[in-house]
Amino acid sequence: MTISRTVLAAAAALMAFLPVTPVQAADSEWSRKVAQLISAKYSYPRSAQLRGEQGRVRIKIAFSPTGKVLSVDLVESSGSAILDREAVRIPMKVATFPPPPNHANVELVYPISFRIEQ
């Protein structure tokens, strides 16, 4: 049983970030950098792996003008409390994010897929 790390990257590439503010939509380079930082901290909880739990989660991340994470909220559940909790934790594991475009408050909706390949 292996975990597909490419699933996270593919979901990010296909869905990118869903615009929540016009500022976010205007700077795709910043969005890509945020996606890379989040992808680097991606982890699949061992307990969910052992249970065979899979799913797709959508989280909303609020950033301050300096790039600090203000909040992370669950937008769409995977159906697994373990995966949902991990998805909300992932952005908090990133030490620093770059400041958003125009140094404004920004919210992003980000998809994370957890899939076990056999």
What does this structure look like?
This protein is an alpha+beta fold. It has a single domain, classed as TonB (TolA/TonB C-terminal domain, 2-Layer Sandwich). Helix content is 37%, strand content 27%. The protein has five helices and six strands; from the N terminus they run E-H-E-H-H-H-E-E-H-E-E. The chain has a four-stranded antiparallel sheet. A two-stranded antiparallel sheet has the order 1-6. The termini are close together.
> What proportion of the residues is helical, as a percent range?
25-40%
Q: Radius of gyration, rounded?
A: 14 Å
Distance between the termini: 5 Å
| Biggest β-sheet: strands ordered side by side in the sheet | 2-5-3-4
Low-pLDDT residue spans = 1-19
Number of strands: 6
- The helix-and-strand class reads alpha+beta
Biggest sheet details: 4 strands, antiparallel
CATH superfamily: TonB
* Tally of structural domains: 1
Second CATH tier, the architecture: 2-Layer Sandwich
Order of helices and strands: EHEHHHEEHEE
Secondary-structure map:
Layout: E1 2-3, H1 5-15, E2 18-19, H2 22-26, H3 28-40, H4 46-51, E3 55-63, E4 69-76, H5 81-89, E5 106-114, E6 116-117
Antiparallel strand pairs: 1-6, 2-5, 3-4, 3-5
In summary, what is this structure?
With 118 residues, the protein is of the alpha+beta class. It is 37% helix and 27% strand.
Give me some keywords for this one.
118 residues, alpha+beta, TolA/TonB C-terminal domain, two-stranded antiparallel sheet, elongated, disordered N terminus
